[in-house]
Amino acid sequence: MVEQLVENVLDTAFLIAMQRAIESDRSDALFHDPLAGRLAGERGQTIVARHPRAAVNARGVAIRTVIIDKFVTTAVAAGIDTVLNLGAGLDTRPYRLNLPDTLRWIEVDHAAMNEYKESHLANERVQCKLERKNLDLSDTAARRAFLDRTDAGAIRLLVLTEGVVPYLSLEDAAALADDLRRMKSIDSWVIDYFGPEMRRFRKRASRALKAAPLIFEPPDWFAFFAQHGFRPREKRFVFEEGKRLGRPAPLPPWLRTLAATRRWLMSPTQRKVARERLGYFLMEPI
Questions:
Q1: Phi, psi (5° rounding) for residue 119?
Q2: pTM here?
Q3: Nearest to 160 by CA among 74, 63, 76, 88
Q4: Are 280 and 189 in contact (CB under 8 A)?
Q5: How many Å apart are CA 3 and CA 11, to the nearest integer?
Q6: How far apart are CA 101 and CA 189, in angstroms?
Q7: I need a surface site. Which of 10, 54, 122, 182 has the fewest CB within 10 A?
Q8: Residues 22-68 pLDDT 10s
């Protein structure tokens, strides 16, 4: 069972890396991540093989990767000088994206994750100035001290928290948002968005990954972040991006028919809510 394989949130990094490797091997791949398979290793292969929704989730990971890649490259082209990737996991963007060698890229994660990554990528060429910081983001004092030091050395900062906030409590997410908002250099923040329609799907995912439950569920997502100083600058929804990229959900024919019938019975407002249930937003300070 997947719940026996995924022992904590850190293990989800192996799942995501393996799904990026699977996408990279497709003839119609949306991106190429040649290092993902090496990082995922046998553990990533095993988790994906036993995951009950591996095919559907792999599509979502591919689309979210494309969305966030675009956020990053556009921000860098617009003058971002520092990227701060909190909970970086096994992400390889500093190696595979076309980035200026003057860009400062800081990856933050637990020591075990960083050591594993360093050992597997030691001889690989980095596109920019890459740094890694061992830090438990739940350690409030250490996190704030680190963010203060990062703020002092940055001019325009982009923060990534790909697949991080969904695992936080409301209290912890609020504290992180407040800490980021205090940074004078922060220009933008990439974050996951889950709409009300996603709640029942997330409950299924949490049952499959009991050791890494998705617990961030504010009553009003937009109001929550507005209260802590952020608003969306740009929104990208997985359903719409998947359609644009020619990558619909891999559903059996009967389920596609059922989904189409359900959409036909919906009001325009209901269809909009369904289309926008999952996305990735570029946030900006208010």
A1: -70, -30
A2: 0.88
A3: 88
A4: no
A5: 11
A6: 22
A7: 122
A8: 999 999 999 999 999 999 999 999 888 887 666 667 888 999 999 99
